[in-house]
């Protein structure tokens, strides 16, 4: 069973625990600038929205990489960057339509979410449940239920 990160922006408080956990998991330091997940602050509305790689099925970053530094992890389905293979050309950063592949100046390589080998630190650290790691087949279930409620989800007349 494939799993994926599910983000519910309505639950995000902007605490940045996900960013801190991600940077610590990957670099051993609490440095949000090194995080592979970002919390965007929409000042005009006051909303906070966590955002990271969605692990696209047809991953443009993977197909664009000229040295095949991005591969699919068979266990998690994550598109993973091999730092030893990456040459830092940034073609993947350009090809990603969501802007979730980032160039790291200090290493000269790119980074993106790799789902922490199936135990995402961001989901573990999120105190409100805004980030969860769930069965990939059910990521839209909450949206469908909310839409049904908006439409007046009523018991059927039988």
What's the structural blueprint in terms of helices and strands?
Elements: E1 3-7, H1 17-27, E2 38-42, E3 47-51, H2 60-64, E4 70-72, E5 79-81, H3 91-95, E6 102-104, E7 109-111, H4 121-125, E8 131-135, H5 141-150
Antiparallel strand pairs: 1-8, 2-3, 4-5, 6-7
Question: How many domains is the backbone divided into?
Answer: 2
In angstroms, what is the radius of gyration?
17 Å
- SSE pattern: EHEEHEEHEEHEH
Shape: globular
Strand residues, percent: 15-25%
Tally of DSSP β-strands: 8
How can the largest sheet be summarized? 2 strands, antiparallel
Q: Report the CATH topology name of the largest domain.
A: Alpha-Beta Plaits
pLDDT below 50 for ≥5 consecutive residues: which ranges?
A: none
Ends distance: 37 Å
Give the integer mean of the pLDDT values. Answer: 91
CATH architecture of the largest domain: 2-Layer Sandwich
What is the helix content? 10-25%
By DSSP (H or I, 4+ residues per run), the number of helices equals 5
Highest-level CATH class of the largest domain: Alpha Beta
Main sheet: strand order: 1-8
Structural category is: alpha+beta
The gist of it:
Keywords: 4Fe-4S, Electron transport, Iron, Iron-sulfur, Metal-binding, Transport. It comes from Ideonella livida. The chain has 5 helices and 8 strands; from the N terminus they run βαββαββαββαβα.
Fold and architecture overview:
Pfam families: Fer4_11, Fer4_6. One of its GO terms (molecular function) is 4 iron, 4 sulfur cluster binding. This is 4Fe-4S dicluster domain-containing protein. The protein has 158 residues and is α+β, with helices and mostly antiparallel strands. The protein contains 5 helices and 8 strands. The strands form 4 sheets. A two-stranded antiparallel ribbon has the order 1-8. Strands 2-3 form a two-stranded antiparallel sheet. A hairpin with a 4-residue loop joins β2 and β3 (47-51). The longest helix has 11 residues, at 17-27. The radius of gyration is 17 Å and the shape is globular. The protein starts with a strand and ends in an 8-residue tail after the last helix. The model has no long low-confidence stretch (mean pLDDT 91).
